[in-house]
Amino acid sequence: MRKIQFLPLSVVTIFLICFGSSVYAQRTKTEYTERTRTEYAERLKSEYSEYYFHEDEISAIDWNLEQLQTELNIKYKPNCEKGTFYSLAISEKEYEDRLAKLPTVIGLPYNKIVRQYIDVYLSGNRREKVEKILGLSSRYFPMFEDALEANDMPLELKYLPVIESALNYRAYSRAGASGLWQFMVGTGKLYGLTINTLVDERRDPFKSTHAGVKYLKDLYKIYNDWHLAIAAYNCGPGNVNKAIQRSGGKRNYWDIYYFLPKETRGYVPAFIAATYLMNYYQQHNLCPTEPENIPLLRDTVYVKERLNLQQVAEMLSIPVEDLRAINPQYRKDILPGDRLTGYSLCLPHNKVLPFIKNKNDILIYKSNELTERKDSYAEPAGKVQKNAPAQSGKNIHIVKSGDSLGKIAVKYGVSIADIKRWNNLKSDKLQVGQKLVIHKK
Question: What's the pTM?
């Protein structure tokens, strides 16, 4: 039998103090410093080298977050007080348990790939941008939930736009996808979104949300599996079908993981990570920062006439930047007025009644400058005869349907101001059959 040797009391005491301090330090939150951030980033590469992001995947995350940072000069303010501590000591089991506790229909399995995405979102200056996403979520999540609920779909799908666009309604990708739900032009049109030079309804939060929910619903009908439907939302059903075929017919996301395109492999883990952070941000010392200059209470009216946002801004004393922020679908600030149903105009709630009451005045305010098509009517100039005497006298123009002062002015080679002065007109409105005196130049 081996003889037992006892350590001196002083050695035992020192060991207990050091070990006890170490355990206590792990169980309490450590102060969040720049050094901690660096260590955190380095740990990603060392611990998860097998799964570590492709540079393109990191780039895609930063691309969305950076657009969120710079978009429209939005000002943010915190809505909670941050602690002075930051903890790295969260066990794998704790992550797994937290995800398991979330009330979801879509499975949220935990693995090192999911942990990798959580850590990346929590590293460096991405933390500040995630706080802005948390602040924006109060604006968009209720709308997402309404659309999902109306289609009997899992409410946790509201977290999908977090990884698609960082909740930036003007987000665009290098591939040409745009909006909260990152629709490509073809898919957007397929789901009823108007996309042209003046209007891009992929940026309309309400319409793009309903289109995105319908698309997800159709994808689920194909696969009867939410993980596969989410993957197909990212890379298209064709690529998912190829992955299923190459895997020998397996229909589980993790079984076809390595058969999917590289940029899609991390899509479901990123969705799980976003779901985790949106629910457990406080445990990571994240504080939502809400946008200050985007009106929270607002309502929508429909306008069938051609209208410029600047007309509304100046007549109703609304900063035009605020109107652009809540009407991002109008690329040139113009509502074309070319469809029977009209175009939606989002307004701060206290400006809806003033708009309805003063609509006619708003429509004619600076209409020639802001909404008149400069080339709506044109004719080639007549041949000029040499030494022809200058013409004098006047014409009587009878207003026809579709006429405007701009069109008439171009036809006779005069200015709109001249026509209004000659006919004592106080506004730009014309009536069919009205007679106008046009003096020849």
Answer: 0.70
